[in-house]
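Pasting as-is:
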Amino acid sequence: MNLWLNKNYPIIISCAKELSRWTEREVSEMGYKTVEVTENTVVVRGDMRDVMRLNLRLRTAHRVLVPLLRTFCRNIKELYHAVNSIDWENLLEADGYFSVSSVVHNNTIRDTRIPSLYTKDAVVDRIRDKCHSRPDSGRENIGAAVFVYWERNELIVYLDTSGEPLSKRGYRKIPGSAPMQETLAAACIMAMEWDRNTPFISPMCGSGTPAIEAAMMAMNKAPGSLKGHFAFQSIKGYGQSIPGESTPAMYSRQHSGASPEQIWKAMVMEAKAEEKTTDLPRIIATDISPEAVDNAHMNAITAGVAQYIEFASCDFGETPIPACDGKRPGCVFFNPEYGIRLGDPEELAPIYTRIGTFLHEKCHGWTGALITGNPDLANLVDLYYKRRVPFFNGPIDCRLFVYEGCELKGHNQT
């Protein structure tokens, strides 16, 4: 098996629960035809060039996986033999490094670490038998990656081409308390239907994730361009020329054929050339905590977007709202405490009431949005919501309330 030579196979894009509809929208906008969509996966078909492109461009996805084996598996011994049957010597370097992660729901397994250990042993034993050498393995995302999904008696073994999950962009060096995951922030912005040309306001910005994701969208900045390593870069043959592949123009003088490494470098350079750095909308991020604002600013510097975000420390009610001056109004996004992991519901109640007042009085005509896992507190906002979109913030079942125009809901909506 040589994935660099194969031209058409299923690519499974995993995402957090309730994000697949937004991932599907992304892949459709990228020109891919969706084969299947589940609660947390989107399936397309393509080759390793597509795998690299998806890793580079996707904002709401978690991993890009290539299935290697799907089989019936009852116990850990059968898992070992199934994994050992894959021709790993053609996929991984014998002197390389790989990690294993797994999702296991099988009643014969009490310690969910065991399947990953058996998978590691099966891979190492196969390569050692075929190559008389063995790769190292551990938990670090610095090499190739294998992902195992074992649900009851169904086993699927994937080559994980992402390694470090795509949700970890690499810019959030100072996360703060209960930070919003990057993929969730991107999906919320998409659900607000922000056009990327009008202002985006993020009161209660915390570690700055929503504002940073909005800035990256406005710039057309590929999120994968921030990452230093993807697992596909450690697949065997990454640095070797592919027969029949055209060479990127920037390498044509030095090379007679294109390697995946050259194609990837050209892809990243093309993405950076497409970034927009002028005529960007105003993006404003505020927080009552000066420390949070400082941390958000540092994260924005790491993301390369700090110069496009206006940071300020203030109560959310004092957040500046730009005058429209005949232009279309923008979006205001709130991610307050829910009273579940952080905050006390009784103490949060007046804050939610104030959020509704702020949106109606200062952002009338704008699109406001609030994500929360507490429906009782959401009712205190007292605005008419156009959409109520389900999301999960980690394990917390949440709803994003989208208030188009920020109109008072009156007494006829519950």
